[in-house]
Amino acid sequence: MAELSVSKKNIYSYLTDSFQESKVKLFIIPEYQRPYSWDVEKCDILWNDIKDFHQKIENRQQGEYFLGTIVTCIEGASGVHIIDGQQRITSFFLMLRAFYTKLEAMLNESPSDDEIQGLMNQIGSCIWDVNPMSKKVTDKTQIHIKSLVATEKDNDIFHSIIRTGEIIQGKSNYSQNYNYFFNQCDEYARKYPMDWKELCLSVLNQCIVLPIECKDLDAALTIFSTLNDRGLPLSDSDIFKAELYRLQSDGQKEAFTQQWKDLSEVVDDSRMSINDIFRYYTHNIRAVSEDKSKEIGLRKFYSDNKYEKLKDPNIMDNLYKLSVFWSNINKYDDSVCTEETKKYIHCLQCYPNEYWKYPTTVFFFKHNSDYKEKLSDFLKNLLSFLFVKFIENPTVNAIKDPIFQACIDVYKTGRANLSYALVDFENKMNALSSSKISKPILLLNSYLYDENQALLPADFHIEHIFPQKWDNTYFTWSKEEADKHINMFGNKIAFESKLNIQASNGFYSKKKQLYAKSEIIEVKSLDNYNDWTADDIQVRTNAVIQRLKVFFEQHLSSTETKIDCLLEYEGGSSNVILNKHTTAGTVTYCLNVDGIEESFYSLEETISKIDRGMIRFGTKKFSTIEIDTLIAAML
User: pTM for this structure?
Assistant: First the structure.
C-alpha cells in the first residue's frame, strides 16, 4: 500500500510546516485541476461561519473550526501538489492576504504596535518566504502558492493579488473574492476594534484542516477519486481528467494538458459541458460493442474495469473532434450544416430530450469525412421517428430501446434504419395538441410550409391566433366553443417573440398588421384572412396534420404491423389481453386492461403489470407456453 501521512493541523501550522520534505516552499495547483470556481456567496458562508465560531467560543485556546480534508502529493523538485482542496486553500490565501493588507494599514497608523507586527509576521510566513532572523516578509514575490491550471485564464490575477494586495476590479472570482474578504476585514476592525486581533489569531490557530499527504501521485489521485465518489461536489469530468492525467507518461503530460485546455475552450464557447461530450461519446463506445442495455451513470460507465475505456490512446482526439462537431451543430455552422440540415437541427433542439444526439454522435464518427452531405437525410429519418413515437407515447422509456438499437445500426450500416407505421395519426395529433411536442411540431410545420423559409429565430414563440384570453367586445364565441378550438394545431403558429409580445391577446384585425411584418412565410399568409373563425382553425388543423403525415411517411419505412396474441384472461367484468406488435423489426408489447392500452418494450415488464389476482383467480382463455413460464416465475 502506498505510504501516506494523515494528521490534524491548524491553518498556521499547515501553511508553514507542509514543506519540510519539499525542496521548495510552494503549493502547486496542478494543470489538470479545474479552475477556481468559488464565488462571493461561498466566501460569505466561509467568512460568517468563522466569524460566528469565533464570537461564540468561550475558551479561545480550545475551540476548533473544521475546514475539511486537503489531499496533497509531495513533488520534491517543484513543491507540494494540491490534489483535492484547492478551492478552500486558494480562498484561504485570499482571506489571509486581506488580513495582511489590513494589518499593514494599521501598522502605518501605529508603527510601535508589537501585536500588529507579530500578527503580520505569522500571517506573512503563511503566504511568503520570511527572513529567518526577523521573521518579517522582505520579498512578496516569493509566494507560497502557484496555480498552473491549464484552463484558468485568471492565474496572473491571483498571483498579482497575493504579491501586491491591491484591489483589482473585474469579474474574476479571485478579484471579487479578495475584494469581499478585504471589505469584511475592514468592517470587522471598525465595528469590533478590541476583537480584531483575536479574530486574526482564531483564523490562524483554531481553523483546522485534515491533511492527507501522499508520497506518490497515484496514491493521491486514488484518494481524490474515492473521496469524490462519495459525494463531494466534483463533476464526472474532473474525475476523468485526473485519471487521464495519471495515465500519461511524463513526456505526455504537457501535451495532455494542452488537449484538455483545447477541449475546455470549445465547450465553454458553446452550450455544452465536458460531461455532455463524455456522455455523447459513451453511445459511440456502446454502439461499437453492440451494447443496448440500460444506461448507467457516466462515472460508473468510464470507471468500469479500472477506467479501461479511458486508456484508449485516441480518446482525447475523439472527444475533441466530437466537441467541435457539436459546437458547430449548435451554432448552425456552414462547415457541417446545409440550409436544410439547419432546420431539422432546430426542430430537434426543441425536442423534449437529448436522445437524438446519441445516434447523431455515432453517425459523426461513422461518416467522419462526408457527414455534411448525408446528415440531412439521416436527421429526417431520426426526427420523423422521434416525433411520431412521442405523439403515440410521450415518455422517454418509449424511445430508449429503439435509439440504442439505432446507434448500433448506424455503426454497422451508416444508417439508423428507423421505421414506424403511422396508425390513426390524425386522431392522435388532435388529442395531443397541448403536449411538450407541440412547439417542435409547429416549428417543423413552418419549415415544411415553404421550402424557402429561412431559419427561424432561436427564441421564437408559439402564437395563439385566436387568443387564450379574449375580449368579449371583439369575440362573440362561447367559452365552450373557444376552449374546443384554442389549442388545436390550426390555431397555433411559430412567431417571432417580439411580434408575439406585441400581438398579445389583441383582436384579429389588429394582429394582422403584425403578421404582415413577420419574416415567417406561413405567418405572412394569415394576412389573407379577413377574420379568424372556427372553420378556419379546423381547416388549418387538417392541413398541418396532413403536411406532417406526408413528411413522416416519406422518411419512415412504414410497413404492416403484425399482431400476435400472447395472453387473454377474464375475471368478472374485467378483461386482460396481451398482444405482441411487430413493425419493421421493432417489437412492442401492448397490454389492454378493460379497454385501456399501454405499450412496453420488455415482455417481463409487461407481465409484471398484470394484476396477480386476475392470474390466480381469473379464467385463462389463451396463453402461450412462454407466457405461462414467465407467469409461473412471477407467482
Answer: 0.68
